[in-house]
Design a protein that fits this description.
There is one protein chain. The chain is an alpha/beta fold and 398 residues long. The chain is built from 15 helices and 12 strands. It folds into 2 domains: 188 residues, Rossmann fold; 206 residues, HUPs (Rossmann fold, 3-Layer(aba) Sandwich), CATH 3.40.50. Helix content is 37%, strand content 17%. It has a 7-stranded mixed sheet. Strands 3-2-1-4-5 form a 5-stranded parallel sheet. Helix 1 links the parallel strand 1 and strand 2. The termini are far apart.
Length: 398
């Protein structure tokens, strides 16, 4: 597990941090946790060794872009959970200012290879570009907050994906697209420094063979680390999911012993849609796994994890990870009648544990969908304005 993010002793600091070219600044709205945001932070981290993440206020985003879906506090929690973020800084200005970068000891700001404009239509990075303090990384294609909001508003399901079948024989994706996805997953399975192969290991489970197959190399649990299992859909990877994982680590940590090794099982799109219907999951299996993969509170993923972790599945986990699964944790969500027997095997083994209610417990994908649909016209207008703005920004590049 990656170390926790640092906290600000005071904000803004009265005394500036010493200037260091290894301290990198990145800023943004970071509305929703999605792998586009995480990818920008990963690339920025690799340009130095300490990543300061500026997060714009709700008010500044409303003025310059439109209404946020997530509040500043929620967005700050999401950034702090990213394995590559060292210091979240709330209320960072929408137009990046060298003065703020100076306060936090950062010589360079990093942004994707697209243009972001303010309310007046000017480049948000014009000042730092002129000062020679701007570095460019590749923007992650195929995912954005705008796209996710669009899926909710239009109730689309075209994004759903059977990853196991695509890996075997691409149908919905091309072979090149699948290879790009796996290369991206390999990169996101890096440690806190961004080093590939030293972070989470990723498996995919087959109910047909009752076996796990490794699809991304990573670190298996060392002797003495307690193996913990959690599972879920992790759709939109909300503060509710993040706080649950943090509390699992906290609950399973014993003084004087190594940190627990947390394995996160992620259900397939079909399993989630069978249970929740409509257009759930909003994010497909690849997008959801990338969200969980970048989180500092997990050590491994098992994709296509069964809804019911039965004896066969738990036994296969123990064989895969080379040790006993010592606890299976579930969050504070209420079971429906059909779900009451979900964790019977874990209870039978005496390893079932629950995380009680917490401040973010009610914030799940359904709650976020409700936020969007309760102000549908407002968000439709946001989407329209974003489309016009994006066209202008594209023209500024070309």
């Amino acid at each position: 597990m990656a170390p926790m993010a640092d906290e600000l002793p005071e904000h803004p600091p009265k005394v500036a941090f010493p200037m260091d070219e290894q301290r990198i600044w990145i800023d943004g709205c970071f509305d929703f946790t999605h792998h586009g945001h995480a990818g920008a932070m990963l690339q920025a981290k690799r340009l130095g060794n300490y990543l300061v993440v500026g997060i714009h206020s709700d008010e500044e985003i409303l003025t310059n872009k439109g209404p946020t879906v997530m509040t500043l506090k929620e967005r700050e929690l999401q950034v702090a959970a990213c394995r590559w973020a060292n210091l979240p800084v709330p209320t960072a200005p929408y137009v990046t200012e060298p003065h703020w970068m100076d306060l936090y000891g950062c010589k360079y700001v990093v942004h994707g290879d697209d243009v972001t404009t303010d309310a007046s239509g000017e480049d948000c990075y014009r000042i730092v570009k002129q000062a020679g303090r701007f570095k460019i990384v590749k923007r992650t294609p195929g995912i954005s907050t705008t796209d996710l909001v669009g899926r909710m508003l239009m109730m689309r399901t075209q994004h759903h994906l059977n990853l196991a079948k695509e890996l075997e024989k691409p149908v919905k994706k091309t072979r090149e697209e699948v290879e790009e996805m796996m290369e991206m997953m390999k990169n996101y399975a890096s440690d806190a420094a961004g080093t590939v192969g030293k972070g989470p290991v990723v498996f995919i489970y087959s109910t047909e063979t009752s076996a796990t197959k490794k699809i991304v190399d990573g670190v298996l649990p060392a002797e003495g680390r307690k193996i913990i299992y959690v599972d879920g859909g992790f759709d939109l990877f909300t503060p509710g999911h993040i706080e649950f994982l943090r509390l699992v680590v906290e609950a399973a940590t014993e003084e004087g012993k190594p940190a627990p090794y947390v394995v996160a099982g992620i259900h397939s799109d079909k399993v989630i849609n069978d249970w929740k219907g409509q257009n759930y999951p909003i994010m497909n299996i690849f997008e959801r796994s990338m969200c969980v993969l970048q989180c500092r509170y997990i050590d491994s993923l098992v994709l296509d994890a069964p809804f019911i972790p039965d004896a066969t599945f738990l036994d296969s986990l123990e064989q895969t990870y080379g040790g006993k699964v010592e606890a299976v944790y579930h969050g504070p969500t209420q079971f429906m009648a059909a779900e009451e027997n979900t964790y019977d095997e874990a209870k039978k083994r005496g390893i079932y544990k629950e995380i009680g209610p917490h401040g973010w417990a009610d914030l799940n994908a359904t709650a976020i969908m409700d936020r969007i649909m309760s102000e549908k016209e407002r968000y439709l207008e946001r989407q329209r304005k974003k489309g016009v703005k994006a066209e202008k920004e594209d023209n500024m590049i070309n």
